[in-house]
Q: What sequence folds into this?
């Protein structure tokens, strides 16, 4: 019996020595970081599919899952982007932006418009992967500046009626480019986002194209040319481009 006890202790000590090596610790850290990250994308998709329909948000029903939303906010704060691929960073920061918008809306709900909340985009700071950032800083510093991809504008939700429709699942590192392409096509072929008026020979487009003109012009010779990249039927040649007034009413489907 004594011999068996000594044998068991020696095995335990060997295991402790092996797991205490730098390589073993690195592997453990990598594993512990990967599992929550995967869980983040899964949990977010489940939440969005439950409360987002046709690009609009049922904030009243989302309130019932505010605990789950808060857990996502906590995961965003702890998310480890060190060593992450460009695709993972891109997907993570887009998801983080959308989650934080939803969380901030709920913290002021019921709400007519996010414009009624002082500093909604440019003053309120959030913990994003260990950094304190406003929504504007998150958009510009973590997405637009490093990726120079104008499609991002169709993926971020600003919680307004005139926003591009919110995707009802998470952006994932493996699918982010295909998801962005689909989202651009979905948005730019929508008759509520791009309004072709044959009677006046005008095309009314979102003010997003005015506010972020340079982002689109770096990818195409004109706004119309950029839009046509994602449409099955091109905008009619010769039609004048104009902007319709942005509707900042909350993208709330609760009463529909």
A:
């Amino acid at each position: 019996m004594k011999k068996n006890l000594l044998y068991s202790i020696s095995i335990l000590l060997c295991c402790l020595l092996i797991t205490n090596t730098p390589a073993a610790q690195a592997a453990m850290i990598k594993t512990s970081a990967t599992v929550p990250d995967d869980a983040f994308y899964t949990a977010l998709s489940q939440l969005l599919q439950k409360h987002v329909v046709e690009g609009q948000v049922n904030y009243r029903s989302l309130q019932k899952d505010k605990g789950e939303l808060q857990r996502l906010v906590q995961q965003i704060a702890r998310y480890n982007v060190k060593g992450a691929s460009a695709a993972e960073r891109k997907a993570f920061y887009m998801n983080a932006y959308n989650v934080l918008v939803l969380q901030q809306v709920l913290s002021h709900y019921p709400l007519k418009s996010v414009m009624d909340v002082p500093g909604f985009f440019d003053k309120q700071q959030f913990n994003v992967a260990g950094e304190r950032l406003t929504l504007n800083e998150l958009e510009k510093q973590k997405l637009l500046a490093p990726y120079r991809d104008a499609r991002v504008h169709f993926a971020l939700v600003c919680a307004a009626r005139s926003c591009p429709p919110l995707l009802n699942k998470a952006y994932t590192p493996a699918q982010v480019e295909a998801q962005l392409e689909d989202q651009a096509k979905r948005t730019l072929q929508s008759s509520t986002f791009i309004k072709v008026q044959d009677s006046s020979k005008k095309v009314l487009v979102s003010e997003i194209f005015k506010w972020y003109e340079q982002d689109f012009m770096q990818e195409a010779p004109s706004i119309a040319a950029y839009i046509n990249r994602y449409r099955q039927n091109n905008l009619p040649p010769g039609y004048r481009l104009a902007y319709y007034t942005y509707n900042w009413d909350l993208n709330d489907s609760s009463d529909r």
User: Anything to note?
Assistant: The radius of gyration is 23 Å. Strands lie at 52-53, 56-57, 126-128, 131-133, 195-197, 202-205, 240-243. The CA atoms of residues 73 and 100 lie 7 Å apart.
